[in-house]
Design a protein that fits this description.
2 copies of one chain form a homodimer. Chain A is mainly alpha-helical. Chain A has 2 domains: 64 residues, Arc Repressor Mutant, subunit A, CATH 1.10.10; 117 residues, Tetracycline Repressor, domain 2. The interface between A and B is large, with 52 and 52 residues.
Amino acid sequence: MTTRRQNTPNAARRSDASRRAILTAAFELVGEVGYAKLSIEGIAARAGVGKQTIYRWWPSKGAVLFDAFLMLGEGEGGEAALPDTGDLEADLKLVMRATVDELNDPRFDEPMRALSTEISHDPDLAAVYRERLDGPMREIKKRRLEAAQRAGQLAEDLDLDMAVDVLWGPLLNRWLQRTGPLTPEYADKLIETALNGLRHRR
Amino acid sequence: MTTRRQNTPNAARRSDASRRAILTAAFELVGEVGYAKLSIEGIAARAGVGKQTIYRWWPSKGAVLFDAFLMLGEGEGGEAALPDTGDLEADLKLVMRATVDELNDPRFDEPMRALSTEISHDPDLAAVYRERLDGPMREIKKRRLEAAQRAGQLAEDLDLDMAVDVLWGPLLNRWLQRTGPLTPEYADKLIETALNGLRHRR
């Protein structure tokens, strides 16, 4: 339990506890039953709150799930950075292998697919996702690439947003579209191929 | 109308016409109402057939939609090939710009998102998709890259499956996850970045 200021009213404390219970329930449930069968009723039952409590704070199950992902992200802290040992290729392989592990983890796989599905079909949710989750993560990646660019390891005219897409896009698409298994070897080869490019080097 | 062999029974002809009507209805409807609201009832009404006719041939709306995509693909012929002018970069830009146009076309956008969602959540459908749609398209792409590799334009040790992922994965992920607009300029820059790689060339 965290220490709380004395003037925090009990109601606000209860409200915060309910909120966390609801988000945890949504995240667990979507992993167990899938997004299609996720319901506000089910989340309410699992969290031990009334349906109306959920509807007071969120307009839809997609919105609940999205906040559940945000809560997960908060634990990682606002000052997150990718590793920087000076060896860009090794650092990126480490990060990409960790992403492979996460995507292969059954606790994350189904909730993340559910979120991706919602984003694919809902431009408004996609805009919120870009602003609150994808955007900040992208900045963290770009900061690492920028350091490499300053060190002369990346092309001077490289567009860092495109670089992020070329590094992470193939893995995410392979995962979402199930075009092949996600393995550490795939992660390594992806980094090598993106860094070196497809062209024959003369 | 195509010429038919004389011994084709009327029943088989009617059956083929119903099949095509159902698939066309499924494709049109998913674009209008989205996948969540697509129903066997709706497809049957639009196609002018009974629900039981659909259930006799397909177990689910996802299966109907998948066959609708296959029917669409059949029109493109089995001998499809990417352009080969000898200029790989120009040829790939042409292809990638055509993909951008297709993904931006409202007639295709929603049905293709619906199919992607189904694939993401259904490993069995994903396996059929890989075998019957993604696999053949991937072979066509690899054939063009192989020609470039033989011509000494691509790295000798390049894994062509990885090359396909690095070229197309970022665009497909950007489209599905709505991380940014799909433009001809994006298509061009993606090809250039994938071919040249991210590294500074000394």
